[in-house]
Backbone:
């Protein structure tokens, strides 16, 4: 349970061999960028590594995958990036729980499950920590490293919008833009934040039409029920960033997005636009996350879920 | 028609007295931030100034207005910021055309209508130029200056998303965040990019439902017709950023947003997600703007407007 400095982590990475890099299930831009940037850095150091994820990498992140995938080899070392809790390994948990040699993360909720942990809860993204680490190590950046790190920092901050954004997020981004002026930053941002599939557009229309307002409009409910998926053809994997719909209305402080996993089971995402700590609300339901964005699983009918969450949000307001 | 350096401009601002600061009609975050930051800087220099705009400042920018407005006084000097063309003064054109002593702008299409022009077409925003100018002058920043400049840079880049974003946009933002760590950047971004009025949400649903696809989906049309305003209660002033709807669909390269000014008159905004220079398309219709975002006025029926624009976009693709 060693707390690692940059020096420690650099020494570890320079001596490790044949690493498996684990990222969390339902992978997002930050863990994918972190994982594949680390693979590229280990390649620069002459080492083999593989990125492992319980779920497939969504197609929209395909541009971050290396052109030549690594061949197969057994792990001599296991590193996790952007994973606060071994639960988040998903189907890989059984194999790798208790076996992680190094964890690099930015979640304040990190459970220190790894033998060694490099944690910076003030960093906007795992990729922000990795940027500073690679610079500290004097790694020569490649375009692959740069685009992975940019994507991770941009996605975890909602393109520099959310209040987890730090001055370093901007400084590192500026340095990447100066070193790689030809990289298609705006194209990346468009893929991440703007482009929607026809089914996703249909689904957003439907969910906006049905959006519910509670507590005098200070709380909203967006329901991604099974019939939304069926009516619009929305793919289960095509839901990243869906939670932002709930915070569109003027005056809303807590936005609830409830996604029906199976009948009577809702995956609930809370976002806060004000002072409410939604991580604490989600903890009451066995979940967790960040102060302004957190999640939990609730069993019950739509009415029960609405009622329980409204009461919890009302108490927090 | 003097081209001004930072030194020239600094000398001008240090000697000018009783300035009227003109911004463009339909004011946006950049011209409002530029105008009110300059007023705050002139105040630091012990000078009186007033910001003038042909249209009212939209309520969402109210937090940029100074707490104590300037008293009335006649202009001894006229400065324009973020105004490429005297036409854009709107109702103020008649009074001030030919009378501008200094223009500070970032539009490559600037017509050099002022006696002196400080122009940097590579800057993402007028506020980016002003940031560097104020630093060059050694102005001590106040929170009012900082929030004006941040808002201008953030809004003109779509929160650092578009490809006009420069390394300097990020560096200056990081410097503002370090000097004013308590400023509510995320709150500003939420007001600028996320919060929507109920009428605006209704209008977006309606326009998305009616969105048209042309040229195999490479071109979209979003129609903000009079009936959209009437049906949804959308206010004429509540339309900033509406053009981004047109670029949501996968595969679209040119997004057209046509807003019905009066019967048979459409204010058309074009946005490019690919290589098409929409400024050139708009120039064919007597308009102009940036490579990726431009506008023009077209007279005709909805069918005629669609037909003429589709032909122009097809030729450009």
Residues:
């Amino acid at each position: 349970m060693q707390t690692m400095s940059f020096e420690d982590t650099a020494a570890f990475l320079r001596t490790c061999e044949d690493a498996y890099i684990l990222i969390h299930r339902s992978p997002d831009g930050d863990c994918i960028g972190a994982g594949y940037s680390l693979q590229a850095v280990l390649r620069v150091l002459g080492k083999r590594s593989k990125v492992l994820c319980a779920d497939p990498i969504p197609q929209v992140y395909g541009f971050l995958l290396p052109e030549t995938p690594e061949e197969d080899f057994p792990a001599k070392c296991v590193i996790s990036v952007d994973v606060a809790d071994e639960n988040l390994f998903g189907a890989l948990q059984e194999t790798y729980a208790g076996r992680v040699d190094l964890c690099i993360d930015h979640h304040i909720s990190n459970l220190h499950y790894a033998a060694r942990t490099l944690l910076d809860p003030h960093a906007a993204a795992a990729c922000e920590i990795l940027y500073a680490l690679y610079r500290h190590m004097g790694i020569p950046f490649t375009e692959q490293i740069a685009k992975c790190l940019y994507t991770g920092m941009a996605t975890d901050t909602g393109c520099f919008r959310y209040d987890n954004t730090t001055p370093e997020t901007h400084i590192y981004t500026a340095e990447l833009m100066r070193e790689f002026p030809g990289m298609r930053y705006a194209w990346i941002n468009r893929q991440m934040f703007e482009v929607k599939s026809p089914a996703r557009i249909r689904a957003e229309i439907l969910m906006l039409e049905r959006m519910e307002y509670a507590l005098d409009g200070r709380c909203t409910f967006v329901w991604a029920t099974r019939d939304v998926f069926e009516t619009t053809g929305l793919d289960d994997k095509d839901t990243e960033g869906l939670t932002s719909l709930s915070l569109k209305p003027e005056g809303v402080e807590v936005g609830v997005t409830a996604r029906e996993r199976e009948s009577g089971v809702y995956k609930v995402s809370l976002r806060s636009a004000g002072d409410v700590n939604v991580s604490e609300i989600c903890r009451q339901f066995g979940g967790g996350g960040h102060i302004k964005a957190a999640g939990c699983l609730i069993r019950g009918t739509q009415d029960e879920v609405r009622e329980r969450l409204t009461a919890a949000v009302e108490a927090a307001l």
About this structure: The two ends of chain A are 37 Å apart (CA to CA). The mean pLDDT of chain A is 95.
